Every structure is written in structure tokens, then in C-alpha cells.
Amino acid sequence: MSSKTNKELVALREQHIPPGPFNVHPIFAASATGATITDVEGRTYLDFTGGIGVMNVGHSSEKIVAALKDQADKFTHTCFHVVQYEPYVELAGRLNELAPGDFAKKSYLVNSGAEAVENAIKVARYASGRQGIITFDNAFHGRTYMAMTLTSKVKPYKFGFGPFCPEVYRAHFAYCYRCPFGLEYPSCSVHCADYLEEFFIDNVAGESVAGLIAEPVQGEGGFIVPPPEYFPKVKAICEKYGINFIMDEVQSGMGRTGKMFACEHWGLEPDIITSAKSLAAGLPLGAVIGRAELLDAVHVGGLGGTYGGNPMSCRAALAVLDELEDGLLVMANQLAAKLDERYTALAEKYEIIGEVRGLGPMKAMELVTDRETKEPATEQAKAIVASALDKGLLLLSCGNFGNVIRTLMPLVISDEELDKGFAILEECLAAA
């Protein structure tokens, strides 16, 4: 354990680090394993955040650690552009095989989800010869300039950082609980998808659009899942106008929804997929996976980066894919069933829960002060997160109003840990 307390380390953090990089909890990790984190004072917490959706395979997975140690004994970096190495090539091949779509694919590796998004947009623009990009309300795609432009919520992500990237157009998303068109599903006939054709009249011509980017499940936006007809309709419109359909799977991929990629739930075959977060179990790695003809269109030297596809990260990612294919996806679907049961029980008992939603084990609940008016229970959500920490449970809120409690626990969590975590969560809900 550290010789310093959490409070002492917080003081040092404030002395040496600017406030911009936010911190949800005033604690410092000393170790972590499975679905738990132990702080520098020896207190252990159940982790329902997974490092914001990064630790699907669990903390300190033996296979991941073994792969890292093996690679570290060989070399840690050469720069793929200077001296190539096999793990990069092997990982790209595996991602190409696993990504949906009965067509030739290629993959390019980067450092993060935001960098994957940036490069997906570069590829879509270059290959199409067009400039327009369509993004959505409630979207989150990262904090670099194009990714931040694509992101919807202004504070804290965009405030004061303009001007933003040009030729980006924002459309309404299928947020059925708070429908931007004032309609109800299914009588709406999924108007939000058909509305894209109208969007081309007043915002940007379809023939000028290089790509449309969407999260299968909107993460920071509140774990919003569109109705089953939505994405197939949107994809068909993209095909009609020659628009590249880009799925941002940074948070929803790698087993988070019970499938390798969340878009598989709709039988979708995106032109480009972005991946990161749980891809390398905590090591910095992102990927752009797409149609070979799109990735091949960019000239030699047009894509790159010093650290992209670092060998340590690649070895971790290969081990993650092994874990997912060797049974972790099965565990993810088992966890989904348990979460469905627990969330349903909570919603029946507590009026503050306006809606439970999600896909597979990617679940959340939107809190409201009144189920009829749907007034966001933002302060109550903050109180629940703070109270849960005191009781040994790490939680996160999300959504435009900060009133959505999401759970991203590692897929390896035990039944005993799950029961304990939900007991704490219920206790906090009852107090709220």
C-alpha cells in the first residue's frame, strides 16, 4: 500500500495536475482484480464502472498479464512505420475476420477511441471525395477536435473550445423515452429514421455526405438503444445516397452487449467500425476496421502515428479476443439475464426509475422526479453515486441531464459480487 492517504494524494493531484482532467471519485487505486479495486488505504470497492467500459475481461486478467510480460521481455516499441512486427498484423487479421460483413476488410490501429473516430472520418472523406458528416443528438465520440465536434453535449466536453470542425451536421436520434418529435413507438413507424430524407433538404444534400456515424448504443448520452427497425432503415438510406455507414463501437464493442460488436444485434454490416476501450483491456489501443476498398483508397503515408498499434497493446488485444471467443461472450449473455431481472425488480419498486434500458449487459436506468413529467432527477443521481462510494460501490452517471445511472461491471463479475453491488445500489435508491 502507499505511504500516503487518499486525501494526501488528492492534495498532490490538485498541486500538480490541472482541474480539466476530471475525477469522479476521490480515491487512488493500489491494486485491482476481477471486478474489484483496492485503494491506497486498503479499502476494496466493487467496480460497476469498468474504467468507463474498458475492463470487460476484468482487472488483471491472468492471460492479459502473461501476454504483456512475454512481450515486454522481447521489445516494447519499434514504431510500426519503421520496423514492423507480427502482433499488429495478426490483430488486424483477427479484427477483419470478426467484424460483420461478407466483404474484404482491412484494419488500421491507433491509440484511442477518439483517434479511431478521427481516422474513420478521414478515410470516409478521402474515399468518397465528399466532405459532409452526419452525427446525432446525445452522441459522444471523443475529445479531439473532430471527435469533439461530433459529440453532442456542450458542457463539459465542448464549452469554450470552439470553433469546431466544418461540414458536420447533427440529426435527431431515436431516443424513444424523450422523443424529439413528440411521437410514441411503435405508432410513430420509426419516423426518426425516415426523417433523414427530410434532413437532406434543409441541412446537407445526401450526395455531399461522406459518412454517417452513430453509436449502436449511445454511451455517454444515456445508454440509448434505438428500436429494432431504426438502424436498418438508416443503413438503407445511406446506401441509397452512397454514404459510408460508420458504427462507433468504442464502448459497445468487445462483448459489452453480449456480442463481439453491438451492430450484430441488428444484422448490420457497417462500412467502417471504430473500436477501442475494452479492445486491449486497459492498454491504449484503437482500431479502424472497414471495407478494404475504403482503407486502401488513402495514399501511402496518409494514415499513421508513432505509437499506433504498439506491440504491448496488440498482444493484450489478441489475448482479449481469445478470452471473448473462449467463453467470455457466453458469460456476457448470462450476466445480461441477471441484470434484466435485477433492474426490472428495482423499476417495479422505485418510482424514481423512469426507464430501464440497454442492450445485453450494457444497462442503465434513467432517474426522474416524476414518471409522468419525466423531470430529470439529476441531483438524486449525484447523491446515489456519492452514497454508493461510501458503501463500497463505484458507479457512474451519464446522459445529457446527468440523471442516468449506468453499469459497466467487468463481465467476469461473480454472482456474489453482483448481489452485493445491487444490494448497495438499492439501498442508495431507497435513500434517494
Give a nutshell description of this structure:
The protein has two domains: 6-61 and 330-431, Aspartate Aminotransferase, domain 1 (Alpha-Beta Complex); 64-324, Type I PLP-dependent aspartate aminotransferase-like (Major domain) (Aspartate Aminotransferase, domain 2). Helices cover 38% and strands 18% of the residues.
What are the main properties of this structure?
7-stranded mixed sheet, Aspartate Aminotransferase, domain 2, 432 residues, 5-stranded antiparallel sheet, 2 domains, alpha/beta, Aspartate Aminotransferase, domain 1, single chain, globular, 16 strands
How does this structure look, described?
- With 432 residues, the chain is an alpha/beta fold.
- It folds into 2 domains: 6-61 and 330-431, Aspartate Aminotransferase, domain 1 (Alpha-Beta Complex), CATH 3.90.1150.10; 64-324, Aspartate Aminotransferase, domain 2 (3-Layer(aba) Sandwich), CATH 3.40.640.10.
- It has helices at residues 6-16, 50-53, 62-74, 86-98, 113-128, 145-150, 191-202, 230-241, 292-297, 311-349, 378-390, 415-431; strands at residues 29-33, 36-39, 44-47, 105-110, 132-136, 168-171, 209-214, 244-248, 272-275, 286-291, 353-359, 362-370, 375-376, 393-394, 396-398, 404-407.
- A 7-stranded mixed beta sheet has the order 4-10-9-8-7-5-6, sandwiched between helices. Strands 11, 12, 13, 15 and 16 form a 5-stranded antiparallel beta sheet that branches. Strands 1-2-3-14 form a 4-stranded mixed beta sheet.
- It starts with 5 loop residues before the first helix and ends with a helix.
- The model has no long low-confidence stretch (mean pLDDT 97).
